[in-house]
User: Which sequence fits this backbone?
């Protein structure tokens, strides 16, 4: 059988019989299905040859534990792992992998009926291969097995990250470790920890203890905990890059060390959200003395070669208002605040360089005079990245990967760091290192974090790992629920915490009506929630309907896949599931009204439930017309478009999600469009 | 309105309209419902007067956070907590509570339409009052509120514990903290950590580092983590008592320090379960030198005044086989191994006393010559406790509270440390301090721990806190699901992890058939699982049907409550829910057979599903006969009893749970019985 180009896999997938091979995420570089299968039973044995880092043995132990749980069979490492190579599963690794940018992460996995072999230049590649193998477990009535297949795989981009803001809301060590487990499952390799903010200084400093003592409300990682996180990440082939955001976003620094400030008045960490203007004073030598000692401590604590200095959203107001700083600017011939920040950045660069680190910062730090080994982190727009690439700078894309803004997985999935048709040269392209999903933490807490990051970040992981030709959105949505199941198997609460929250909101363990409603609506995108409901703070409870709703309303995704497939195939008979969904949506208003009679917390959802009901009626009538072979006139289509527009207006920070499905079907039913 | 004796509350509960007051668990000592309600809205404010420990402020912060989550309203401590007493919720505490045995834990809670007041001699009582208040939150269509009520409350027993074995399986710090949160919710006050076992030495020793380095497989608490757990517990009014089980159950000690052993041959921690005979050598002075240093370290680490030395299940085989020990026995005129262990215990007692600790041990340590301040921990039978009480010793009951053995909540609930009709004098009774639920960890892991401990331990907590007259089993079962909801609101996964496990076992997110089946069966009780399926080790996966089944099959509990209430009321028309359950049970075989066609992991459940189907048919026919007013002859009853006996035989470590419900109904339908 010949190798199938990845482009074709997703097409093959939707037509062939079910196989776990067709659910892999991220899609490997090359997949060649073969005939037969490897049966997983008590004869399963594992050996490792070559020269891997000891982390591989730990990974095999974890793999065996997962395998045991999944199959209900006992795979005892003491007996399964053999010292000779006469085993059914052999791993071969050339050398220990280094957990740093650009390390070889490739692997080759071969499954035949008699044997599994996994080979990789480094154990980092072998870790990826183990995750692929875990995703491939299947079962039937006789046993568990892996289908025969040849996989050759390596990442498209070397920098595949998740940024976690642990300051607007703090997250426990175990919560961070869960994200690392999930990242490993989808082959991400950078955890970027945003460790200081106006709202909190979330790491212990032994040099300047008032930073965490007065700046964190008691919520910070000890240095032991940070070392624990770094070791846990390294065991999974994941770098941990810290960010200390300066000179802006620094209220929490000033609480303990007001002498750093450009203006007085910071008595405690901020609890509101927004841009507050708190900015370090770049005109005082003491600022650099402080930062010199501070970064010496943090550069020693974090082994990664990159240090992220933030640098975003300095509005300059405090600098403008400070006479001393104005004087400093003119004395040093710094015309603009951007010039002043550039001066500041160069001083920081010296400090980092002295400590053996390379500098990274949000795209505001970009200036042509910086050395070429810094990395520009593009968040305001992809132009900043392309400009940096042209000027010879490396960059990482987060613009378009802001998962805190409630956009759909599809939008993130289509956000290619190097899109088809780019004008960049190969040389320039090579400086685009990859991307990072960014989970800013204004509207998320311990309870909702997993469901906010996942599964959408799996789609981003595929964008960053797989070939640029893997672009079928419907196929991504088909595989995403499979990844959610794998994620919950390894401990993530992305599915279960929604149930917990629905039971609390309903005040009952009967939640099917509430679930049906919340699976049909989505939170408002972008920063709109803050303007619709001003006053969010670090004390706001994230336990309302909008906090349970997902950015990809699950039932609407199901409907969309069914409608798209129906249209594509020319089938005139809509799947009965579509009619069921329409009826469920129609009943929303009645069901929620009944719930709200005894539950004030449901009341705010009633207007949206009314919209959902109306759109359900519209959808049902369209399905019936489609089934009976009727078409729409352009005027009818316009009327439908107007109604959808009217009915998808947001209420309670929520909006009905089925508008686009209705429009897809309506347009298909309108000849001459 | 006059005070209702607690005996009557549960009767009142089942007849009156729903009120959270009737769901409280544990039932308070005195509850006087009043008219009206306190509306919870943005005017809510809190103040504290008196002289509490600072832990109370932290508890109020946690309370406000829970309240915010539950109501979706923001209760910002910065604005809700006032420094003056002009607030709607006032707390008054006389003095800081000491987290130690016998401290005053009483409180009085008064809710009127205009104000809530909580007063207590110590902040420990106030913590209990806050938990009661949290359980009392209600809602309707207009808002959230607390019903007016007067509650006066204090515990029946001063020692209300949960023992957690962290050695057969290790549990993370966060997992232990979750148990502490849950314990606080139901007013338990002792966490007993079983820290050393054949299978693992689960705590860092700085004096003898090979204990944890070689004895733990890497799974141990650092001393910093232990201090963190102790502080977390103390913030919730909970003592942490360590247990180091000696001289038996000590394989993990010998791995690093073989010189302690009575026989050679312990090269690594045990992974099987059972009694392995590894025993310390009581004849060597070096053993006591070691333990002197070891306990000095651990007595300093743990602030509690009690140190538990285990002492159980020393089978004496190693002592008998060791010539040196035999010689020592005869030289010291120690006739039996029990005498030798008594000698050993007295040496340990000296060490503990020197370090300011009182000694506790399993009932094997009992000997009349011990000083009267030691505590006997009864596990082999309640007789040991009564004997100890008569001889002047204090004791704690765990016999009957072995929650690891899969008994029903009802059985534990009816296990009163001082049962009605006891022959003990008041003086003897006063030496019975309370009890401890014991979660031994052979057949439990991180994933299943919460659902194994909870909600059953809430029933035990009520037994230990509430009056001995609170004994209505059906009423306990009515309230237990409410407590489960409260527990999951504060972070426990007792409900959700069952879903996760069912999805993994089903290999699908469609689990209603599997759930229906698993909600009707129960794991085999006692130690039977080990004999039915020999070979369980620390590597066994707990992901099978038996691991998802609960000791109180939820659907059978529902059926039982409905049948009991139907019989009591004389209603001839069975609730339609009963017929629905019968149909669900009847369909079990068909549904599971279909699942097993594509899923080997389901196959072992088919014989049990057949039994469930047959019993469902029997139940349905009985319901129909009952409805039509038919009776059974004694012969028919005997036939039914025989069939139930046949059909409840265990398979795959599981048994159908509806046998007793069927028999209850059948007996009721048989005149002259």
Assistant:
């Amino acid at each position: 059988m010949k190798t199938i180009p990845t482009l074709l896999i997703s097409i093959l997938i939707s037509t062939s019989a079910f196989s776990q091979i067709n659910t892999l995420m991220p899609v490997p570089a090359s997949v060649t299905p073969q005939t037969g299968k490897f049966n997983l039973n008590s004869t399963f044995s594992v050996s490792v040859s070559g020269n891997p880092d000891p982390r591989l043995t730990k990974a095999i132990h974890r793999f065996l534990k997962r395998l045991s749980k999944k199959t209900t069979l006992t795979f005892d490492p003491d007996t399964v792992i053999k010292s000779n190579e006469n085993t059914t599963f052999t791993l071969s690794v050339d050398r220990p992998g280094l957990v740093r940018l650009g390390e070889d992460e490739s692997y080759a996995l071969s499954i035949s009926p008699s044997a599994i072999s996994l080979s990789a230049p480094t154990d980092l590649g072998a870790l990826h291969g183990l995750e692929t193998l875990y995703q491939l477990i299947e079962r039937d009535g006789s046993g568990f097995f892996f289908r025969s297949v040849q996989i050759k795989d390596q990442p498209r981009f070397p920098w595949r990250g998740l940024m976690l803001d642990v300051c607007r809301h703090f997250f426990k060590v175990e919560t961070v470790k869960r994200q690392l487990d999930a990242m490993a499952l989808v082959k991400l390799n950078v955890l970027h920890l945003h460790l200081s903010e106006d709202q909190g200084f979330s790491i212990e400093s032994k040099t300047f203890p008032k930073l965490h003592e007065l700046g964190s409300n008691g919520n910070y990682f000890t240095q032991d905990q940070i070392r624990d996180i770094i070791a846990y990440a390294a065991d999974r082939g994941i770098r941990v890059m810290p960010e200390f955001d300066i000179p802006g976003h620094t209220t929490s620094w000033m609480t303990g060390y007001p002498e750093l400030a450009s203006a007085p008045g910071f008595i405690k960490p901020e609890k509101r959200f927004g841009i507050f203007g708190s900015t370090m004073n770049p005109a005082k030598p003491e600022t650099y003395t402080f930062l010199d000692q501070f970064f010496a401590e943090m550069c020693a604590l974090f082994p990664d070669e990159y240090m992220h200095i933030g640098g975003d959203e300095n509005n300059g107001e405090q600098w403008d208002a400070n006479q001393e700083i104005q004087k400093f600017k003119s004395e040093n011939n710094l015309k603009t605040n951007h010039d002043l920040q550039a001066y500041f950045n160069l001083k920081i660069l010296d400090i980092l360089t002295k400590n053996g680190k390379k500098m990274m910062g949000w795209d505001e730090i970009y200036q042509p005079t910086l050395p070429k080994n810094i990395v520009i982190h593009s968040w305001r727009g992809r132009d900043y990245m392309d400009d940096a690439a042209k000027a010879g700078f490396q960059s990482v894309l987060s613009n378009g990967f802001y998962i805190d803004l409630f956009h759909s997985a599809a939008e993130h999935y289509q956000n290619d760091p190097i899109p088809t048709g780019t004008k960049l040269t190969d040389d320039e392209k090579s400086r685009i290192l990859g991307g990072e999903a960014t989970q800013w933490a204004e509207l998320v807490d311990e309870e909702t974090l997993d469901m906010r990051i996942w599964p959408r970040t799996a789609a981003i992981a595929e964008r960053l790992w797989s070939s640029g030709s893997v672009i079928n959105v419907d196929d991504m949505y088909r595989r995403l629920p499979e990844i959610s199941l794998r994620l919950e198997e390894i401990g993530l609460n992305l599915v279960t915490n929604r149930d917990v929250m629905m039971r609390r909101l309903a005040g009952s363990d009967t939640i099917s009506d509430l679930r049906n409603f919340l699976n049909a609506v989505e939170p408002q995108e972008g920063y709109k929630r803050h303007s619709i409901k001003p006053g969010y703070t670090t004390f706001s409870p994230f336990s309302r309907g909008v906090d349970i709703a997902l950015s990809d309303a699950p039932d609407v995704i199901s409907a969309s896949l069914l409608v798209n497939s129906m249209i594509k195939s020319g089938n005139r008979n809509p799947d009965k599931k579509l009619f069921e969904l329409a009826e469920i949506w129609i009943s929303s208003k009645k069901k929620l009204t009944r719930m709200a009679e005894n539950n004030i917390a449901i009341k705010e959802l009633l207007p949206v439930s009314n919209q959902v009901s109306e759109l359900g009626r519209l959808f049902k009538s369209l399905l019936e017309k489609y089934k009976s072979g009727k078409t729409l006139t352009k005027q009818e289509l316009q009327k439908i478009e107007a109604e959808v527009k009217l009915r998808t207006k947001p209420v309670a920070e929520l909006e009905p999600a089925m508008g686009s499905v209705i429009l897809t079907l309506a347009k298909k039913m309108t000849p001459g469009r």
Observations:
- Chain A touches chain B through 53 residues (CB under 8 Å).
